[in-house]
From TrEMBL:
Residues 423-556 form the GGDEF domain. This is Diguanylate cyclase. The modification 4-aspartylphosphate is found at D58. SMART domains: EAL, GGDEF, PAC, PAS, REC. It comes from Candidatus Terasakiella magnetica. The keyword 4Fe-4S does not apply. Residues 219-269, 339-391 form the PAC domain.
């Protein structure tokens, strides 16, 4: 027996004690170490304590586990021990079952001595086979362990990895590959990987593999594959390998570049936007050094990228924003990571431009700020357009003064401030006296220039904190905030009046103006804006009535006067309805004969409470309300009736009657027709009726008036030019309109004795009129001196209190009778 055999241990398991004894004895003699068990349970206990090389196992044992069951249990536990199965009979099925369960040999135990000989050979064979299998199992185990180790390594790699054999079937892959392919490893193994792709990709891959197998090396391919969560972009890395037997295979790795692709796309998109956007972009580092600018930046600022890289964007600053502005900007950027607003910067060429700027902080994954991105657009044009619109909405186009809108805004703001500070605000309403005459007579261009000059003079009279506005026409306002003493307002008013009374020299014309100023004070006169406006307006009219070129403060009495105006209008309407108007006549004396050759018809109102009222009380209200048309018609009707009456009286039949025509009446389209109807109705003949119109009225529409006057003249009506000298009529017009009579205004006659200028003027007017073939009436002659002067000047006609005040029709008759007698 060899040493090796002595070391061999055999476990005999049989419930038959005789077999157990015989077999043990036989084998002991052979030098084997023996263990004995009479059933499977005993045997398993022994096995858990001893190393055994061979088990001789009775197939059939009772009670408990059979030998076959014990063998299966051993093999299930991967125990590679050699087993000889003893069977009681030549049962083929038992032999097959035993061999399939992992027995190395079997032997029939009922064959006597032959059994022992066979047992000897069977033991030797089984031990040999068992040993061999153990070695194989061992090396197989080692290989398995190695494979397991390698699998663990490649499973730890996050990149999908696989390897294929010569037949291109997958031999193995890692977990990442299984996850990527979305199949378990055992299903992937044995497949051709190309089967996982659509046909066209698969074909390409097969070609790649074939090339790789032939030529070796590595291959890198970019592919798009479809997965349950959508399309993925991959980079397929492949390389050829050779195993120990020299067979070729392919090892491959798949890199999922979907995110990288997306990122690249986003980057490309961002780059395109950066390059092509119309908005300028600046990227700065944390030290505010410029890292990048886009082409729009260059377009807006004029600076190239090379010129600005590394610089602080502050070099663009225009200086319009102060330190505090930038401090607040950075504070907000630090707190909120974002700032946006409007800012003025300077281009390379020095021009200022407005930009709408948005600055955002760029953070890394940890939230730390890494850069700043500033995006801005040039809004200069928009700003200028907005500014223009705002200017047009708030400023008067002619004078560039604040208009009504801005005036109202400034006034209400001043009132709020005054309320807060306990101060006062003065509001001045200013109207240019006789501006309309200038405008009408010298033309709108001169009128416009006059308003512009007025605006400048007004601005020169006030402080910067005061607001001069133009509400329209010749209406100006001045807001004087923070008033302490009434005297301050007086000073400004006097200054304004003084400035505006200075000669305006415009396009060769010396123009003399004056103004009427109404003043109201917040909060004394009113706390509502509308009330203040009303008050100032009322005060201004008060000033006008007081003789112009003056100022008046608003008082409650002025308010009462405004109320009176309302009542007046109401009463005038009633007066028209009740025919309360009558006509008085003022004689006009012919100088050469001393006879009454004509008279002026002057309306009077038989007021139910006030009695006989002169036109000064109501005529301007009638003009403003348009009621003058109706009153004028009643006067004309009355005058025509009177002419008809006087035609029958010898002393009166040669007396012409002149009627005042208001601007309103002159605009009546039916005027000529109405006059003709009235004349025909009352039998008024040519030469018996005259119309008096004022210079201002003529100059409003010289062209139209000339045509109209010609029409009227064709009816046999003479035209008088009233109030001559008070307006701005050009001498040229005098000739062109061929007035029949010119009436020199009372204001010139009044002072002919004290004022040489007036005397010279009256003299000149008379000479000039005569040269043009126009007769002259001197109005308002009250004294003998005036009468004498007028007669000396060879004036044709005289009208005035010196001869007679306006008289009723009866008194006029008496007057005429007495003078002709
Ligand atoms: N559209 C119409 N206007 C009319 C009509 N009637 C009058 N009027 C206008 O009213 C103005 C004032 O008229 P009245 O108060 O009647 O004054 C006239 C004369 O009384 C006054 N006058 C005449 N002589 C003297 C004088 O020596 N001294 C003095 N202090 N006043 C005098 O002058 C007025 C007439 O002036 P005029 O018209 O310029 O000739 C009046 O001026 C009209 O504008 C009417 O029916 N329609």
């Amino acid at each position: 027996m060899t040493k090796e055999v002595e070391q061999t241990h055999i476990l005999i398991v049989d419930d038959d004690p005789i077999i157990l004894k015989v077999v043990s004895g036989f084998l002991e003699k052979k030098g084997y170490g023996l263990l004995r068990a009479k059933n499977a349970e005993e045997a398993l206990d022994l096995l858990s304590e001893h190393e055994v090389d061979l088990i001789i196992l009775d197939h059939y044992m009772e009670p408990g586990m059979t030998g076959l069951e014990m063998l299966k249990a051993l093999r299930q536990d991967d125990d590679p021990v050699a087993v000889i199965m003893l069977t009681g009979a030549d049962d083929r099925q038992v032999i097959i079952d035993s061999m399939q369960a992992g027995a190395q040999d079997f032997i029939l135990k009922n064959s006597g001595v032959e059994f022992l000989l066979k047992l000897d050979q069977s033991v030797i064979r089984a031990l040999h086979v068992g040993d061999l299998e153990r070695k194989i199992a061992k090396s197989h185990q080692a290989l398995q362990d190695q494979a397991q180790f390698l699998q663990t390594i490649i499973d730890a790699v996050p990149t999908p990895i696989y390897y294929k054999g010569t037949d291109q079937k997958i031999l193995g892959c890692n977990k990442a590959m299984a996850d990527f392919i979305e199949q378990p490893i055992y299903e992937i193994v044995g497949q051709k990987i190309d089967g996982l792709y659509p046909a066209e990709i698969s074909e390409k891959l097969q070609q790649h593999d074939a090339t790789l197998m032939d030529e070796g090396g590595e291959l890198l391919t970019e592919l798009a594959v479809q997965r349950s969560d959508g399309e993925h972009h991959i980079l397929s890395h492949k390389a050829r390998y050779r195993n120990a037997e020299g067979e070729s295979g392919i090892v491959g790795a798949v890199v999922d570049i979907t995110e990288r692709k997306l990122y690249e796309n986003e980057l490309r998109l961002a780059q395109t936007v950066f390059e092509t956007t119309s908005e300028a972009i600046i990227v700065t580092d944390l030290q505010n050094g410029i890292q990048a600018v886009n082409p729009s930046f260059t377009r807006v600022t004029g600076y190239s990228e090379e010129e600005v890289i590394g610089k602080d964007p502050g070099f663009l600053s225009s200086g319009r924003q102060d330190k505090e502005f930038y401090h607040n900007m950075w504070m907000q950027l630090c707190e909120k990571g974002r700032w946006q607003g409007e800012i003025w910067n300077r281009r390379k060429n020095g021009d200022l431009y407005a930009e709408w700027l948005s600055i955002s902080a760029v953070h890394d994954e940890t939230g730390k700020i890494t850069q700043y991105v500033a995006v801005f657009s040039d809004i200069t044009k928009r700003k200028k357009a907005e500014e223009l619109i705002r200017h047009q909405a708030n400023f008067d186009a002619l004078t560039n003064l604040p208009n009504r809108n801005l005036f109202l805004d400034r006034l209400s703001r001043s009132m709020v401030r005054a309320k807060r500070n306990g101060t006062q605000v003065a509001l001045m309403f200013l109207d240019l006296d006789r501006f309309k005459s200038v405008n009408d007579t010298l033309g709108h261009n001169i009128g416009d220039a006059l308003l512009q000059e007025t605006a400048q003079r007004l601005l020169g009279c006030v402080r910067e904190t005061d607001t001069v506005s133009r509400l329209g026409g010749d209406e100006f306002t001045v807001i004087i905030p923070d008033i302490k003493h009434t005297y301050d307002i007086e000073k400004v008013s006097m200054k304004v009046l003084h400035e505006l009374s200075q000669t305006f020299s415009i396009e060769g014309h010396d123009i003399f103006l004056s103004a009427s100023v109404g003043i109201t004070v917040y909060p004394d006169d009113g706390v509502e804006l509308e009330a203040l406006m009303r008050n100032a307006d009322t005060a201004m009219y008060q000033a006008k009535e007081a003789g112009r070129n003056s100022f008046r403060f608003f008082t409650p009495e002025m308010n009462a006067k405004a109320h009176e105006q309302m009542i007046l209008e109401r009463d005038l309407r009633q007066a028209i309805e009740h025919k309360e108007f009558c006509v008085h006549y003022q004689p006009v004396i012919e100088v050469t004969t001393g006879q009454v050759t004509s008279c002026e018809a002057l309306v009077r109102w038989n007021h139910p409470q006030k009695g006989l009222t002169a036109p000064g009380y109501f005529i301007s209200a009638a003009e403003e309300t348009g009621l003058i048309d109706e009153i004028g018609t009643q006067v004309l009707e009355e005058v025509c009736k009177q002419i008809h009456q006087w035609k029958k009286v010898p002393e009166m039949k040669a007396v012409r009657v002149a009627v005042n025509l208001s601007p309103h009446q002159l605009r009546n389209e039916n005027l000529v027709q109405d006059l003709q109807t009235m004349m025909t109705k009352h039998g008024v003949e040519a030469g018996q009726l005259s119309l008096e119109i004022t210079e201002t009225l003529v100059m409003q529409d010289p062209q139209g008036t000339a045509v109209l006057l010609d029409e009227i003249r064709k009816l046999g009506i003479k035209i008088y030019l009233d109030d001559f000298g008070t307006g701005y009529s050009s001498l040229n017009y005098l000739k062109r309109f061929s007035f029949d009579v010119l009436k020199v205004d009372r204001s010139f006659i009044m002072d002919v004795h004290e004022n040489e200028g007036d005397a010279a003027l009256v003299e000149a007017i008379i000479v000039m009129a005569h040269k043009l073939g126009i007769k002259v009436v001197a109005e308002g002659v009250e004294t003998i001196e005036q009468q004498k002067f007028i007669i000396e000047q060879k004036c044709d006609l005289i009208q005035g209190f010196y001869y007679s005040k306006p008289l009723s029709a009866e008194d006029m008759y008496d007057y005429c009778r007495s003078t002709t007698a």
